[in-house]
Structures are given as C-alpha cells and as structure tokens.
Design a protein that fits this description.
The protein is about 55% helix and about 10% strand. The chain has about 290 residues and is of the alpha+beta class. The chain has 2 domains: about 80 residues, Peptidase C65 Otubain, subdomain 1 (Phosphorylase Kinase, domain 1), CATH 3.30.200.60; about 150 residues, Peptidase C65 Otubain, subdomain 2 (3 helical TM bundles of succinate and fumarate reductases, Up-down Bundle). A 6-stranded mixed beta sheet has the order 1-2-6-5-3-4. Helix 4 packs across helix 7, helix 8 runs antiparallel to helix 10 and helix 8 crosses helix 11. The chain starts with 19 loop residues before the first helix and ends with a strand. It is an enzyme of class 3 (hydrolase). One of its GO terms (molecular function) is cysteine-type deubiquitinase activity. It catalyses: Thiol-dependent hydrolysis of ester, thioester, amide, peptide and isopeptide bonds formed by the C-terminal Gly of ubiquitin (a 76-residue protein attached to proteins as an intracellular targeting signal).
C-alpha cells in the first residue's frame, strides 16, 4: 500500500504575508508588551502618589540657597543666582496639577489677611464685588446653579473672612496656620481651587473671540478638559484669564538653561509700586512654586 503523499503546500498567509503561527506569535508579543506597559505605568503612578503623600501641599519657607541646592548639577542651577538678587525665600508646592492655583490663592489670601492699608482695602472690596458677581457669570456661561452654589458660597465665606480674621495677623505662625487650614486641607482647598477653575472657564467662554485663536480645541472642550478638570496644570491662558477677571497681577520668574531667569508680568503693564497686589511665582519646567522677598 502506497503512503499518502506529504503536502508541501505552505501555510496560508494573511494580507501582510504572515502565517497563522507568526500572527499568533505577534499577538502574544503585543499582549506581553501591553502588560509590561501597564505595569510600568502603575509603578510610575504609585511612585508619583508616594511622592505626593510625602510632599506637603505648601511647604514651610525655604531660603533660595536651600532651594537652589535641589537643582545642583541641573542646567537650570545658575538661574537662581539672578533670582536671589530680588527674592530670598520660596515655598514649594505639591506637584499635583494644582500648584499654580494653590500658590496664587495662598498669596492672595495672605496679602489681604495681613495688609490693611487703605489701598489694600480698596482693592479687597473690588475683588469681593467680583466674587459676589461670579455666580451669575458662571450660570451665564453654562454652569448649573445647584453646582455653582456649593463652591460659590464656600469661596465667598472664606474670602469675606479675610477682612475680619479672628487671629493676630502680626503673628507669622498664626497667619501660616490660618492659611494651611484653608489651602492645605484637602476637602476645603478642593472647593476653593475648583471655584477658581470655574471662574477662569466662565471668563474664557465669555471672551471666546479674544482667546479662541490661542488654543487648538474649541473653547467649550478646552475649558472642560484643560481648566475645569481636577489636577490639570494651569496653562498661560488660564493665568491670564484669572488675572483679567479679578483685575490682579502676577510676576512669573522662569528659570532658563543659559543660567539666566526670564521675568514676565500679567498684565504686562503691571507696576510693582507696592500699591497693589502682585503675586510672585517661580516657574520651573512644568511646575510653579511661590516666591517671597
């Protein structure tokens, strides 16, 4: 009996010229790669969360010499020499996507808590009126009244409390504790920061013709995913929006790889003559810390 002939026909290949065995191997390799990437992502997220837990929302004062040491060996290290000609202290902010919002709120609250000069009181009253009217501005730009009420009432209460604080505002430790209780308390701070985000969104939407050319997304989408969303870092347009809405100013010092420091002001014509509030922030790649003279 003769044996059946052995087939020499090659395995059928797909459109890319791969055999079933090769397709299966590629599929397995892809699954292993995805599993590896998920593991690495989880590891990095766990590390980030661990760092966050160890880092306070707002640090105690550091001298700029102490802060500079953290950058030793980095290309931005020499930038701090020029920064130290004007500033002496810095507060570090937790890297949680809210660094700008927490830093600027800390400085605003501290300024109006401590400073009771005539010009400061006039400026405080102007901002208070803005905040009182912010609820309607938010509703006019698509925010639900029920949602707005929760955040508006809390923010307004805290801002009003700055005018008649129940602490000795000449006591630096008491002032620091007062601010920590509001801006380092995760629950309360979330309300305050979220409301500031809402205010920025409402302002940008109300002035979309002015700001739309500077963003790639449509304004509503941009505000939803880049401004309102928790832990989204503040982009320059957000900072401009907040300063314009509240009629405040901020000076941002940015480290440079050439050893210099670049200074910008929002608005650009803000005059630092001690007759108004000016926030002072240090920008290092992807992060804001709080500068102090």
């Amino acid at each position: 009996m003769s044996e059946a002939p052995t087939s020499t026909q090659p395995d059928k290949k797909d459109d890319l010229g791969l055999t079933p065995e090769e397709i299966e191997e590629n599929k397995k390799a892809q699954q292993e790669l995805e599993a590896h990437n998920e593991a690495v992502t989880k590891q990095m997220e766990d590390l980030k969360n661990a760092v966050r837990k160890d880092m306070p929302f707002v640090s105690k004062y550091l001298t700029l010499d102490e802060y500079k040491l953290k950058w030793e060996g980095n290309k931005f290290y020499d930038s701090f020499d020029s920064i130290m000609t004007k500033f002496s202290k810095v507060r570090e902010l937790r890297r949680d996507g809210n660094c700008f919002y927490r830093a600027i709120l800390w400085q605003i609250f501290e300024y109006f808590l401590v400073n009771k000069s005539e010009h400061a009181l006039v400026e405080y009253d102007k901002i208070l009126k803005k905040i009182e009217g912010a609820k309607q501005d938010l509703m006019d730009n698509g925010y639900d009244e029920v949602v707005v009420d929760m955040f508006h009432d809390q923010f307004l209460e805290e801002f009003k409390g700055l005018s008649e604080p129940k602490i000795d505002v000449t006591d630096d430790e008491a002032v620091e504790k007062y601010l920590e209780e509001r801006l380092c308390d995760e629950s309360l701070a979330s309300y305050l920061i979220t409301y500031i985000r809402f205010i920025i969104s409402a302002y940008l939407k109300a002035n979309r013709e002015m700001y739309q050319p500077f963003i790639e997304l449509d304004m509503d989408t941009y505000c939803q995913i880049r401004v309102d969303a928790v832990e989204q870092e503040a982009e320059e347009i957000c900072i401009i929006g907040l300063m314009n809405y509240l009629d405040l100013a901020v000076e941002i010092i940015q480290v440079q790889p050439d050893g210099l420091a670049y200074t910008s002001k929002i608005p650009e014509d803000a005059v630092d003559d001690e007759s108004r509030f000016i926030g002072r922030l240090l920008f290092t790649p992807g992060h804001y810390d709080s500068l102090h003279i």
